Amino acid sequence: MPKRILRVSTATQGVYVVQLQEEVDAAPYAALSYCWGGDQPHKTTKARLQVSNPILRWDHLPKSIQDAVKVTVDLGILYLWVDSLCIAQDDEKELALQIAEMPRIYTQAIMAVMASRATRANEGFLGDIDLNQEAELRARLPFQCPGGLLGSAFLRCQEKSHDPEPIDYRAWCFQEYYLSQRMLTFGSLQNRWVCPSTYLMSSSINIGRFTNGWK
Q1: Where are the domains of the chain?
Q2: DSSP output for 7-76
Q3: Model's pTM, two decimal places?
């Protein structure tokens, strides 16, 4: 397990509980891969660590981190690792040690949540995907969310589905992609699950838009 981890729990009136805590042995966790887009105003520092296991204010978290919390909770995972919150950013010694641990952190994560479409942390990645007219509609799949909400997934053949995303231009994220055993990527044209049993196809199926799901 990493040195620190975020414990995340179910929302109350749209607000999720996010608590920074010290290492929890052998607990499955997800890891976020995203573009910072500049220095983060809300990050962990040595001063903030003086509070034991602090609960982070939901409205202070960047949108991409909020979205990653939602995905993690909805998948039934209790813990999430985010670099800006799980590493003291003003502690040079800790930064050096934790950067050296990055291969282990991402390799041992149960999955990586890839915020592929967001150019910066405050953008988020759970918005609707534009179903443009150039994509060939293959099928519409209705589904039911926990709690009874109904939604639809649109399967389309999208020629540009493998075009570079904002995350593809970041060297750190490139490393995280290849270190992770499983990935759920949220892109501009499709969402994709990647694991050791998946393979590349000449034409990909696009999971276009979720309604009443992750938004």
Answers
A1: 4-125+164-194
A2: EEEEEETTEEEEEEEE--TT--EEEEE----S--SS---TTGGGSSSPEEPGGGS-HHHHHHHHHHHHTT
A3: 0.78
